[in-house]
Amino acid sequence: MAQAEFSPGEEVDFVVVGSGAAGGIVARELAMAGLKVVVLEQGPYLQLADYTHDEWLINENEELAWGPKKGHPQTFRKYEHETAQVMDDDPLTYAHNVGGSSHHFSGNFWRFRPIDFMERSVLGEIPGTNFADWPISYDELEPYYTKVDWEIGLSGLQGPWDPPRSRDYPLPPLPVKSSGVLLERAAKALGLTAYPEPHAILSQPFNGRAGCIHCGFCLGYACEVGAKSSTATAMIPQALASGNCELRPMSTVARVETNDSGRVTEVVYWDENGVIHSQKAKAAVLCANGAETPRLLLLSESSQFPDGLANGSGMVGKNLMFNGATSTAGMFEHPINAHKSVPTTRVIHDFYSIDPSLGFYGGGGIDERHLARGLPMAFAMQRSRFSGRSWGSEFKNQLAHEFTHACSFSGHTTSLPLSTNNVTLDPTVRDKWGRPALRTTYMDHPDDLATMKFFVDRAEELMEAIGGTNIHSRWDEEGQTGGAHLLGTCRMGDDPDSSVVDRYNRAHDVPNLFMVDGSSLVTGGRGQPTMTIMALAFRAADHMIQAAGRGEI
Amino acid sequence: MSKSLITRRDFLRSISDSARHSLVVLSLPSIALATQQARAAQNAGRNLVNLNSNEAAELEAIAARIMPTDETPGAREAGVIYFMDNVLGEERSEVLPALRKGLSDLQAVANARFGSDLLNSLSDADLDTLLAEIEDSSFFGTVRYLTIAGMFTNPVHGGNQEEIGWQLIGFEDNHAWSPPFGYYDAEYMETGE
User: Under a CB-based contact definition with an 8 Å cutoff, are residues A449 and A349 in contact?
Assistant: First the structure.
């Protein structure tokens, strides 16, 4: 069936803003339930022929697409007393295309665990932070994690400390790489356990899609065979085929309009040519990511909502969390060829929760990677990770050896929610549409920095245990200056005074407005949030469908 | 391109395996395709378009110290200068004025020190001495960036001719691989650990 077509003046059931990890799922679920849906996506609808392994274009010229040069500047500062500056690279990284960042991720799909939803109760208050329990438990979300497994397509093997699951993974794990073997051997030597990394990448053909061909271009690249389980591959085509969904790419939302009774009436957007349109809908779902969703709410202020739409709590844009990231490189005697296949194949979760007696909060996982995502240009661009001058014969010969013989053990860690870490509207800088630019204020909590250091130490021990040489670690000791995990900025909760959406992702203050994406997360997990974003999307869509059936949207 | 940009990216790359740089924006595909087609036509003739022959010879002399020709081919054999010429007309056109200024500054130093303002005529050792003194400068950072990019780029952009750079480090854009991928997983397949 051809995709639906609606006129902007026709009131559809739902308008969904954003077509990424959450938006693609929400649109598909609503449309397949028979509801009329319009999806507005600010980026293009890329097709297979548009995908390329061209590192110069994709990596080095990202600003051709959506950075400051393209009219999308962002500003950054560490502290609120500073004036935020426009950055050469946008600090908040996300893909602008149908499928959003799910088109470009490497699909490391860790479930959150029961502890993630109730950690505040277990550990108590962390002064100066907004550390809180979720309003829902792992058990309530579990059926939707399983739905992600089977609807999106996951490969994996239940690990020794994994949370309980109601159904096996649909596909076996991807084959182990040399770097994964090294991590597994190192873990064994230290009495730890490495087990197969779960992936939203198909290890075998599934649901009419091909299995992974191990080309090595996962991170930052769209999958040329459709083995990566992006919503552009796994969800959007089904949404369109339902005949109930119209996808409008290159559509940038300006505002969400409300009426005198405080209900959403329509969503205003620019098309590719800068022509303004307005789509009427019974309800709106913002799935624009943890940066763009709060920005849109702040842009949608009115006399009735002077601090931004749905912001009675004052929490819109606050509690931004990136997750911490560390990298410990080592060299080995024989070829590893970590540039082949998926980025990582083994993960250690023995440090999911760091012993509180160490005096700081935190936890995470360690997996193995190539030093530069397996990209030749990016690898050589680095100053030598190990030693010496970054040019000349010696450097050149080092590169020749290191590209195939090095790998990294990488930490992925917790971030605490803080009011002072946030996205706001920049008071002076504007984007090409004239909208205030996204302004990020962010400084990692001391516990987050201590956690990263803890993981660097563990990764170095692992490297030493397996005989790695030239061991060298890097992490943002002075605080991270950007992120791709954009979490916490419209947090979920039962209390309208301290949260933005309720336990079903409905705005506390606006009855027919929903926010579903990384912004909903109350805590940021251990470094791989997309699995949980997708599970929340399936769950929220379920409740939207039920509410629509009762006439309650 | 500021030095800070290069430095920041350099660092991001190093932790890129993790969260920060994992999600990179795709270029608009129509631009990508047009660029590639234009590049293919341009490379066929090996004509310089944006640099004059003197500038090209001087920049190539520096590039050849960054990626020297020794037991293995270097920047000269990889055609790095054609990559530079290409991108200095488009994606990095904004750095061309600063690059020219930096080049003439370095030539002036060469003249004062060695009595020749042609970098291309200096001995490798003399040129290395000059470059070592400015290796933290924005000018050197930019030339290094362009040299590395040209050495390891997809050949469609003019550098990495005959995949010389890729062969050097053991990279192949094979599009499909099957296990074993390396030494240790081959061992693992045999022994199970």
Answer: no
